[in-house]
Design a protein that fits this description.
Length: 281
Protein backbone atom coordinates (compact mmCIF):
# COMPACT_ATOMS: atom_id res chain seq x y z
CA UNK A 1 0.00 0.00 0.00
CA UNK A 2 1.13 3.51 -0.76
CA UNK A 3 -0.05 6.46 1.36
CA UNK A 4 0.55 9.92 -0.02
CA UNK A 5 0.01 13.22 1.73
CA UNK A 6 0.45 16.03 -0.75
CA UNK A 7 0.84 19.63 0.35
CA UNK A 8 1.14 22.80 -1.65
CA UNK A 9 0.36 26.49 -1.20
CA UNK A 10 -2.81 26.09 -3.27
CA UNK A 11 -4.01 23.12 -1.23
CA UNK A 12 -3.19 25.00 2.00
CA UNK A 13 -5.18 28.00 0.77
CA UNK A 14 -8.25 25.84 0.08
CA UNK A 15 -7.94 24.22 3.53
CA UNK A 16 -7.84 27.66 5.13
CA UNK A 17 -10.90 28.73 3.14
CA UNK A 18 -12.82 25.62 4.30
CA UNK A 19 -11.85 26.25 7.94
CA UNK A 20 -12.75 29.93 7.65
CA UNK A 21 -16.10 29.06 6.12
CA UNK A 22 -16.93 26.70 8.97
CA UNK A 23 -15.81 29.27 11.55
CA UNK A 24 -17.90 31.97 9.86
CA UNK A 25 -20.99 29.75 9.88
CA UNK A 26 -20.45 28.97 13.56
CA UNK A 27 -20.00 32.65 14.33
CA UNK A 28 -23.16 33.60 12.45
CA UNK A 29 -25.11 30.88 14.30
CA UNK A 30 -23.85 32.16 17.67
CA UNK A 31 -24.75 35.75 16.78
CA UNK A 32 -28.24 34.66 15.72
CA UNK A 33 -28.74 32.73 18.96
CA UNK A 34 -27.53 35.69 21.03
CA UNK A 35 -29.92 37.97 19.17
CA UNK A 36 -32.80 35.55 19.75
CA UNK A 37 -31.90 35.28 23.44
CA UNK A 38 -31.66 39.05 23.79
CA UNK A 39 -34.96 39.46 21.98
CA UNK A 40 -36.70 36.94 24.22
CA UNK A 41 -35.23 38.55 27.33
CA UNK A 42 -36.25 42.02 26.18
CA UNK A 43 -39.71 40.78 25.26
CA UNK A 44 -40.12 39.07 28.66
CA UNK A 45 -38.97 42.24 30.40
CA UNK A 46 -41.43 44.43 28.54
CA UNK A 47 -44.39 42.06 28.34
CA UNK A 48 -44.31 40.72 31.91
CA UNK A 49 -41.76 42.21 34.29
CA UNK A 50 -42.48 45.87 33.46
CA UNK A 51 -46.13 45.42 32.49
CA UNK A 52 -48.47 47.24 34.88
CA UNK A 53 -51.15 44.66 34.19
CA UNK A 54 -49.17 42.20 36.32
CA UNK A 55 -48.54 44.45 39.33
CA UNK A 56 -48.88 42.73 42.70
CA UNK A 57 -52.50 43.42 43.55
CA UNK A 58 -52.80 40.97 46.42
CA UNK A 59 -50.48 38.92 48.63
CA UNK A 60 -52.39 35.92 49.96
CA UNK A 61 -50.81 34.78 53.24
CA UNK A 62 -52.15 31.47 54.58
CA UNK A 63 -50.96 28.33 56.28
CA UNK A 64 -50.46 25.13 54.31
CA UNK A 65 -53.97 24.14 55.46
CA UNK A 66 -55.57 27.31 54.07
CA UNK A 67 -56.04 28.93 57.48
CA UNK A 68 -55.00 32.41 58.64
CA UNK A 69 -51.46 32.56 59.99
CA UNK A 70 -51.02 33.02 63.74
CA UNK A 71 -47.59 34.65 63.95
CA UNK A 72 -46.66 35.98 60.48
CA UNK A 73 -48.57 38.99 59.17
CA UNK A 74 -48.22 41.00 55.95
CA UNK A 75 -46.24 43.78 57.63
CA UNK A 76 -43.60 41.36 58.96
CA UNK A 77 -43.57 39.51 55.62
CA UNK A 78 -42.68 42.69 53.70
CA UNK A 79 -40.26 43.97 56.35
CA UNK A 80 -38.28 40.76 56.79
CA UNK A 81 -38.18 39.50 53.18
CA UNK A 82 -37.76 42.76 51.27
CA UNK A 83 -40.84 42.08 49.14
CA UNK A 84 -41.74 45.11 47.00
CA UNK A 85 -45.54 45.48 47.00
CA UNK A 86 -45.29 47.85 44.01
CA UNK A 87 -43.48 45.32 41.80
CA UNK A 88 -45.01 42.94 39.27
CA UNK A 89 -45.46 39.31 40.20
CA UNK A 90 -42.92 38.28 37.54
CA UNK A 91 -40.22 40.51 39.02
CA UNK A 92 -40.55 38.71 42.38
CA UNK A 93 -37.99 35.93 42.79
CA UNK A 94 -40.23 33.28 44.36
CA UNK A 95 -37.34 31.02 45.40
CA UNK A 96 -35.48 33.89 47.03
CA UNK A 97 -38.66 34.94 48.82
CA UNK A 98 -39.17 31.38 50.03
CA UNK A 99 -35.62 31.23 51.42
CA UNK A 100 -36.15 34.56 53.21
CA UNK A 101 -39.29 33.16 54.83
CA UNK A 102 -37.44 30.04 55.99
CA UNK A 103 -34.92 32.31 57.73
CA UNK A 104 -37.68 33.50 60.08
CA UNK A 105 -37.60 31.55 63.37
CA UNK A 106 -41.38 31.01 63.43
CA UNK A 107 -41.50 29.43 59.94
CA UNK A 108 -40.74 25.75 59.30
CA UNK A 109 -41.79 25.51 55.64
CA UNK A 110 -42.94 27.87 52.90
CA UNK A 111 -44.25 27.92 49.33
CA UNK A 112 -44.55 30.96 47.04
CA UNK A 113 -46.53 30.85 43.79
CA UNK A 114 -47.81 33.31 41.20
CA UNK A 115 -51.40 33.52 40.04
CA UNK A 116 -52.32 35.74 37.10
CA UNK A 117 -52.88 38.56 36.78
CA UNK A 118 -51.62 39.96 40.13
CA UNK A 119 -51.85 37.43 42.96
CA UNK A 120 -48.82 36.29 44.95
CA UNK A 121 -49.78 33.21 46.96
CA UNK A 122 -47.67 32.60 50.08
CA UNK A 123 -48.26 29.47 52.16
CA UNK A 124 -46.29 28.71 55.32
CA UNK A 125 -46.06 26.22 58.17
CA UNK A 126 -45.58 27.95 61.50
CA UNK A 127 -43.56 26.82 64.50
CA UNK A 128 -45.79 26.96 67.58
CA UNK A 129 -44.07 27.64 70.92
CA UNK A 130 -45.18 25.62 73.94
CA UNK A 131 -42.91 27.07 76.64
CA UNK A 132 -40.13 29.45 77.53
CA UNK A 133 -36.72 27.97 78.31
CA UNK A 134 -34.51 29.53 80.99
CA UNK A 135 -31.06 28.90 82.43
CA UNK A 136 -29.48 31.27 84.95
CA UNK A 137 -25.89 30.09 84.36
CA UNK A 138 -26.17 30.85 80.61
CA UNK A 139 -28.01 34.15 81.10
CA UNK A 140 -31.19 32.88 79.43
CA UNK A 141 -34.05 34.56 81.26
CA UNK A 142 -37.66 33.45 81.47
CA UNK A 143 -40.31 35.43 79.59
CA UNK A 144 -37.75 37.93 78.29
CA UNK A 145 -37.96 39.03 74.65
CA UNK A 146 -34.29 39.98 74.51
CA UNK A 147 -32.60 37.42 76.78
CA UNK A 148 -35.08 34.55 76.59
CA UNK A 149 -35.87 31.74 74.18
CA UNK A 150 -39.03 29.93 73.18
CA UNK A 151 -39.19 26.21 72.54
CA UNK A 152 -41.63 24.16 70.48
CA UNK A 153 -43.02 20.72 71.28
CA UNK A 154 -40.01 19.03 69.64
CA UNK A 155 -37.48 20.97 71.71
CA UNK A 156 -36.40 23.43 68.98
CA UNK A 157 -35.09 26.66 70.54
CA UNK A 158 -35.86 30.00 68.85
CA UNK A 159 -36.15 33.69 69.81
CA UNK A 160 -39.35 35.60 70.43
CA UNK A 161 -38.82 37.66 67.28
CA UNK A 162 -42.20 39.29 66.64
CA UNK A 163 -45.01 41.06 68.43
CA UNK A 164 -47.43 38.28 67.50
CA UNK A 165 -45.14 35.66 69.07
CA UNK A 166 -44.82 37.77 72.21
CA UNK A 167 -48.61 38.18 72.55
CA UNK A 168 -49.05 34.42 72.19
CA UNK A 169 -46.11 33.34 74.37
CA UNK A 170 -46.38 35.90 77.15
CA UNK A 171 -48.21 33.49 79.45
CA UNK A 172 -46.71 30.20 78.33
CA UNK A 173 -45.12 28.00 81.03
CA UNK A 174 -41.40 28.15 81.75
CA UNK A 175 -39.01 25.21 81.83
CA UNK A 176 -35.93 26.07 83.83
CA UNK A 177 -32.57 24.58 84.76
CA UNK A 178 -30.12 26.36 87.06
CA UNK A 179 -26.95 25.27 85.28
CA UNK A 180 -26.27 23.80 81.84
CA UNK A 181 -23.43 23.46 79.36
CA UNK A 182 -23.31 26.14 76.65
CA UNK A 183 -23.89 23.66 73.85
CA UNK A 184 -27.02 22.23 75.50
CA UNK A 185 -29.24 25.27 74.79
CA UNK A 186 -28.47 26.82 71.41
CA UNK A 187 -30.68 29.06 69.28
CA UNK A 188 -31.81 27.26 66.14
CA UNK A 189 -31.11 23.79 67.55
CA UNK A 190 -32.95 21.27 69.71
CA UNK A 191 -32.38 21.16 73.47
CA UNK A 192 -29.64 18.73 74.48
CA UNK A 193 -29.98 19.05 78.26
CA UNK A 194 -31.60 15.87 79.60
CA UNK A 195 -33.42 17.57 82.46
CA UNK A 196 -34.93 20.25 80.22
CA UNK A 197 -36.06 17.62 77.74
CA UNK A 198 -37.89 15.82 80.54
CA UNK A 199 -39.39 19.13 81.70
CA UNK A 200 -40.56 19.84 78.15
CA UNK A 201 -42.09 16.38 77.94
CA UNK A 202 -43.97 17.13 81.15
CA UNK A 203 -45.29 20.41 79.70
CA UNK A 204 -46.47 18.64 76.53
CA UNK A 205 -48.28 15.97 78.52
CA UNK A 206 -49.75 18.45 80.98
CA UNK A 207 -51.27 20.44 78.09
CA UNK A 208 -53.43 17.39 77.31
CA UNK A 209 -54.45 16.67 80.91
CA UNK A 210 -54.56 19.92 82.87
CA UNK A 211 -56.84 22.82 82.01
CA UNK A 212 -57.52 26.29 83.38
CA UNK A 213 -55.97 27.03 86.76
CA UNK A 214 -54.58 23.48 86.87
CA UNK A 215 -52.26 24.26 83.93
CA UNK A 216 -48.56 24.45 84.60
CA UNK A 217 -46.92 27.84 85.14
CA UNK A 218 -43.34 26.57 85.33
CA UNK A 219 -41.23 23.42 85.67
CA UNK A 220 -37.81 23.43 87.34
CA UNK A 221 -35.19 20.72 86.90
CA UNK A 222 -34.17 19.83 90.47
CA UNK A 223 -31.62 17.06 89.81
CA UNK A 224 -30.95 14.04 87.58
CA UNK A 225 -34.29 12.35 88.31
CA UNK A 226 -36.64 14.94 89.81
CA UNK A 227 -38.71 17.89 88.59
CA UNK A 228 -40.67 20.51 90.48
CA UNK A 229 -43.74 22.06 88.85
CA UNK A 230 -46.15 24.80 89.85
CA UNK A 231 -49.68 25.29 88.54
CA UNK A 232 -51.36 28.60 87.81
CA UNK A 233 -53.41 28.14 90.99
CA UNK A 234 -50.22 27.91 93.07
CA UNK A 235 -49.95 24.15 93.68
CA UNK A 236 -46.32 23.01 93.88
CA UNK A 237 -45.79 19.41 92.78
CA UNK A 238 -42.73 17.17 92.91
CA UNK A 239 -42.45 14.67 90.06
CA UNK A 240 -39.89 12.24 88.67
CA UNK A 241 -38.68 12.03 85.08
CA UNK A 242 -40.60 8.78 84.69
CA UNK A 243 -44.29 7.78 84.83
CA UNK A 244 -45.31 11.35 84.09
CA UNK A 245 -48.77 10.38 82.82
CA UNK A 246 -49.62 8.65 86.12
CA UNK A 247 -48.31 11.56 88.16
CA UNK A 248 -50.24 14.17 86.18
CA UNK A 249 -53.45 12.16 86.38
CA UNK A 250 -52.99 11.91 90.16
CA UNK A 251 -52.40 15.65 90.39
CA UNK A 252 -55.63 16.39 88.53
CA UNK A 253 -57.58 13.98 90.76
CA UNK A 254 -56.07 15.40 93.96
CA UNK A 255 -56.90 18.97 92.96
CA UNK A 256 -60.48 18.00 92.11
CA UNK A 257 -60.85 16.06 95.35
CA UNK A 258 -59.56 19.00 97.39
CA UNK A 259 -62.02 21.34 95.69
CA UNK A 260 -64.89 18.97 96.47
CA UNK A 261 -63.80 19.07 100.12
CA UNK A 262 -63.67 22.86 100.11
CA UNK A 263 -59.89 22.86 100.41
CA UNK A 264 -56.96 24.03 98.30
CA UNK A 265 -53.75 22.12 97.69
CA UNK A 266 -50.48 23.91 98.28
CA UNK A 267 -47.90 21.13 97.90
CA UNK A 268 -47.86 17.50 96.80
CA UNK A 269 -45.26 14.83 96.11
CA UNK A 270 -46.50 12.74 93.18
CA UNK A 271 -43.62 10.30 93.00
CA UNK A 272 -45.00 7.64 95.44
CA UNK A 273 -47.59 5.29 93.99
CA UNK A 274 -49.46 5.12 97.31
CA UNK A 275 -49.77 7.35 100.37
CA UNK A 276 -49.03 10.54 98.44
CA UNK A 277 -47.87 13.36 100.77
CA UNK A 278 -50.26 16.30 100.45
CA UNK A 279 -50.26 19.76 102.07
CA UNK A 280 -53.35 21.98 102.05
CA UNK A 281 -53.41 25.74 102.05
Amino acid sequence: MLALKVSSPRILMFDCLKFGSRFLKLGIAMVVMLCIGFGLSYGWQKLFVENDEFLVQEVSLKTMYGEDTSFLDHERLVEQTGLDPAATIFSVDTEQLREALLDLPEITDAQVRRRLPGLLKVEVSEREPVAWVACRSLGIRERDRDLGFLVDADGFVFPCASEALWSYAEKLPVIMVKTAERGEIVEGETIQNKGLRQALQLVNRAAERLQGSESLAWVVVKDEIMLEAKTLSGVTATLSYYEQDRQLDNLSRLISHAQEQGKSLTQVNLIPRRFVPVHYR
